[in-house]
Design goal:
Elements lengths: L4 E6 L2 E7 L3 E8 L16 H11 L4 H8 L3 H8 L7 H11 L3 H5 L13 H11 L3 H19 L1
Antiparallel strand pairs: 1-2, 2-3
Helix pairs in contact: 2-3
């Protein structure tokens, strides 16, 4: 007889799911923290909000981030909406894909302010331009340079 056990902590209660023919949920015991830890003071931004902000700052869509990590887009969405909590391996994967430290991803350290932040639309366009063959890329950059020189006058 095979048993599959899966532990979840939900609202400080520990549940064990046993899988036989049907799922049976048994409430084992409430988990009450023994010690009160001082608040970390990480700000008002949740981990999901931070994930979405960092992803957008890098100019990535949920699909692109999911592909970089090797997961599906619906999972990125679930992490951003706080439907799922990332384990330590997923935190590392997100941090690597977003090119930030895990401390920055978790909100322990603040990111250095980048005053020259590009908009998401510009970042996406630049990525598309970089993917073009060299002659087309040169032509577009020449057109942009001509336009910018005219705008400066």
């Amino acid at each position: 007889m095979n048993f599959i056990f899966r532990h979840e902590i939900v609202h400080h209660e520990l549940y064990v799911k046993h899988k036989f023919k049907n799922h049976v949920i048994i409430n084992i015991m409430p988990q009450v923290p023994k010690y009160k830890l001082p608040p970390l003071g990480l700000g008002d931004e949740t981990l999901g909000q931070r994930l979405a902000r960092l992803r957008k700052e890098k100019g990535l869509t949920q699909v692109e981030l999911a592909k970089a990590i090797g997961i599906r887009q619906v999972l990125v969405s679930a992490y951003e909406r706080e439907r799922l909590r990332p384990n330590y391996e997923m935190i590392i994967q997100f941090a690597l894909a977003l090119d930030v430290s895990t401390d920055e991803f978790l909100g322990v350290k603040k990111a250095k302010k980048n005053e020259n932040k590009l908009s998401l639309n510009i970042v996406r366009r630049v990525k598309k331009i970089e993917a073009l063959p060299e002659p087309q890329r040169r032509a577009i950059l020449k057109t942009v340079d001509t336009f910018l020189k005219g705008a400066e006058k």
